[in-house]
# Entry
Amino acid sequence: MSEIVIDVGDRPIREVNQDIQAACAAGGPIRVRNTLSRHNLGVGLPPGVTIHFEGSVGYYCAGLNTGATVTIERNCGWGVAEGMSDGFVTVGGYAGMSCGAAMTGGLIHVKGDCGPRCGVAMKNGTIVVEGKVGYQCGFMAHKGRIIALGGAGESCADALWEGEVWVAGDVDSLGVDVKVIEPTAEEVAEVDAILEPLGLKDTARNWRKMISGQRLWYFESRDAGAWLMI
Amino acid sequence: MCGIAGRILSAPGRVGNDLVELMDAQEHRGADSTGFAVYGIPRDEGYILRGMGFNESRLSADMEDFRLILREHGADFLEDPTFVTGGAAHYCVRMVISDPKDLARWINDADTMSDRFEVQSCGRSLEIVKDTGGSRDVAEKHGVRDMIGTHGLGHARLATESSVLPNASHPFWARPFPDVAIVHNGQITNYYTWRDRLHRLGYRFLTENDSELIAVWVSHEMSQGLTLDQALKKSIRDIDGVFTYMIAGEDGIGFAKDRFAMKPLVVVWQDGSFAAATEEQAVRRIYPGECDVINYDGPSLTEIWGVGNRRAAA
# Structure
């Protein structure tokens, strides 16, 4: 099927998204041009479509994705693939704050670095970051897995709930209530199985797996100090 | 949410127009009020004042009283003041004055009539223009697009912590320091603690806007001998809340960001010129093509960007 090309420029985003949804209904694939870092592009995409954003996009691109395959050529702003339930989102460059916030499924692959609070409040799914994850990565993540290959910034895995943060490389500092554990061979194999189709498998990696220390699960006043660490 | 912006040109030019574009692209962040700090070609002597009176019918009396205070400090108008009036209770004025003997003392005396008239900027080159409404309306009303200069700041306000009043708009002048202005995106949570403390030290607050605190706080720290860089770093420890603020002086623009890394700032440097904004889509108005964008996303960050050629012919 031939590619459907949609131009953004200074057009109203509602109109652009209507065009994108119509192109999805037609079956795509879709190429979105002249994005100019504008917000809310491609929100609520249906399963089965392939959409490519040329250049950089703004906030909340591919939010609430239900199964589309999305590629962003360069950078994205806040909340890329926020609330995604299924699908595959690739960011070619840098991902801004709250990448994959509250996502419930699917996979995000960031080829560059990530801003603060990558995977904040995520409830399932996977985020793979080839570069470094920013401040408070995995903040209050309830489920799912963040895999950072290029290290992590300050306060890593801060107040993590039931998610997992895997880091290869340096971690600037750990967040509140984090437990660093030695992953089992089976768990490493599971992560490698995620990385392999992305061409990122490397068995020589020295992983740090972070999970919740569970002290914040049942708050007691004598633990109040833990909250004041940040 | 508020949106902030900064712009530096490689040589004097239409900086006002660029700031309007930067703010227009961010108007959805807040259109309660909009403001601009524009640094024109610097004067060798004399100051440019921008101010606001709150009752247009008192304009003549305000100016007479203001001139009286000015003369008591050995200064006077160098040009006839120009006014923007109509459509609202308040009026705005631009004045050029000769140098008062002691700028800080003069502004302290001038502020005694601040319930009627406020000086909102004073500098060899700084002019702060601010008003209620969105960027296009404010720009048109005050002729901001035609303002020539080297650098400047912009602000779009979504009022959260205090009322929507024309004088509570940003930028704020770091009174009494000439040519220093700030814009802020965020909330200051230890505002009243600091306000009380600075008030007891003799500083005057003209609004209830928490962002005014930053301007006063910085001016106090600089009066105690801190450099701008030191003041920026100290503010991250001393000022509590979420903030990204930008501060401009004659020679450059600096910024500081809170330790929670809550409010964004994106920057593009290209061909000796610079644009910074809360959102990347705003800097795309200046640099539409793909280029290197620096995201200042980490916690506790500061930076100062210098202005190069200020006096080349416009």
Observations:
- Chain A has a mean pLDDT of 95.
- The two ends of chain A are 53 Å apart (CA to CA).
- The longest strand of chain A covers residues 66-72.
- Residues 141-220 of chain A form one domain.
